[in-house]
Every structure is written in structure tokens, then in C-alpha cells.
Amino acid sequence: MQNQYETTIIATPILTDEQYKDTIDTYKKFLKDNGCEIVHDESWGLKKLAYPIQKKNNGYYFTIEFKAETSFIQKLETEYKRDERILRFLTVKLDKYGVDYNERKRKGEFKKKKTEKEEA
Amino acid sequence: MAQKKQQMKFVVSPQIATGQQKKYCRFKKNNIKYVDYRDVDFLMRFVNEQGKLLPRRITGNSLKWQRRVSTAVRRARQLALMPYVGDNLK
Q1: Is the predicted pLDDT of residue A113 greater than 60, yes or no?
Q2: DSSP chain A
Q3: Which value does ipTM take for this structure?
Q4: What is the mean pLDDT of residues B66-75?
Q5: Which of A8, A92, A117 sits opposite B42 (nearest CB)?
Q6: N or C: fewer beta carbons within 10 Å in chain B?
């Protein structure tokens, strides 16, 4: 059964730009090779962490949104655990409201005005 | 007894004592259907200065939404978008 998932990954800040792209591309390729459809991916760039992880204060965040079979997620997570460049990851299953929210966010409906967010 | 009650007159209208605003669940009212764990500015409203989650009687959320807000805050904490323990966050 296909569900829509979203993974947020924190990678070590030490890597160069090329290496970041490389990590994202390896996972995108891994997803495609296993028959998953990638809906969206986004790099947030370097951000300051709220608390140090593995003695580092910054991290490179990126998200991948994709559709996959339920059995595939465990394989994906073991891949994340094996990769040394990844500090943390979080995979979330999106229900229909989550999918809807992400689509609206991509269209730009949630700008920085507070009132608009409340109306969402 | 009824006569005695009628004799009591208040100097100040008693409505001021019960002057709390009617609490409501902001999710129900604004028809919000999803709490995003990546939206730190929004989640900061449900957290106190030390980073602890605020109780439902203060935030005014319904039980369903309070639980969703707390899962969102816990996910944000795991992703180091919000701290587990903090100081002067606001």
C-alpha cells in the first residue's frame, strides 16, 4: 500500500556543497531505484541547532517528500543509520491533511503574516 | 432568604469579577487541520520560556489538538529545532 511520507534529515556541517548535493542525490536515487515517487525535496541549508548533536552546533537540513510502500521504510531508515554523514533523521507518515498542508505551503499560501497562518 | 438577597447591593457590578475572556480552541475556530512540526514560530506559542509545553487549561486547546501540538513539539525537539530545556526563549 502506498503512503506519502516525509523525511527530514540533518547532515554534518563539515561537508562541502558538493558533498551535500551528493548525499541528497544518493537518497533520491535510492528511492527511485526502489520504485518510489519523489514528490518534493528541499534543502534548508545550514541552521543553528537548539542543542549540540555529536558536539556540533550547526547542521545542514533537508527534507524529502515521497510516496512509498509501507515495507520499504525500514530499509530506508537502515540506510540513514549507516550513513556517517547523517546526524539525525525523522520520517513521518503524512495523512491527507498533512499532504494538503504541504501542497499549500509549496504554492506559497503560508507567508510570514501571522493572520494568514491562523486562517489556514 | 429571598428578601435578604434582594437587599444586597453591589458597589461594583459583579460581572467584573468573572471577567475572563471566553477560552476557545484556536484550531477549531480557525479550521486548521494540521500542525506542522517544522514551524517553530507557531509552536513557540504553546511553550513557556523554559521550553516546556504549556498545559491545556492555559492554551485553551481541545484535547485532540493539544495532543497533536505536543507531538509536533516533541518532533521539533528531536530535530533540534526547539530545545528540550531552555532559558529566556521569549
Answers
A1: no
A2: -EEEEEEEEEE-TTS-HHHHHHHHHHHHHHHHHTTPEEEEEEEEEEEEEEEEETTEEEEEEEEEEEEEETTHHHHHHHHHHH-TTEEEEEEEEE-HHHHHHHHHHHHT---S-HHHHHH-
A3: 0.85
A4: 95
A5: A117
A6: N
Q: What is the pLDDT of residue B42?
A: 93
Query: CA nearest A58 in B: which residue?
Result: B80
Q: What single letter denotes the amino acid at residue A86?
A: I
Residues A16, A26: Cα–Cα separation, whole Å: 15
Minimal Cα–Cα distance from B81 to chain A, Å?
6
Distance to chain B for A47, nearest Cα, Å: 9
- Average pLDDT, integer, range A47-64: 94
Q: What three-state secondary structure class fits B78?
A: helix
pTM higher than 0.95: no
Express as a percent the part of chain B with pLDDT over 90. 63
Which of A6, A8, A55, A112 should one mutate to test binding to chain B, selecting the residue with the greatest count of B CBs within 10 A?
A8
* pLDDT band at residue A115 using 50, 70 and 90 as cut-offs: very low
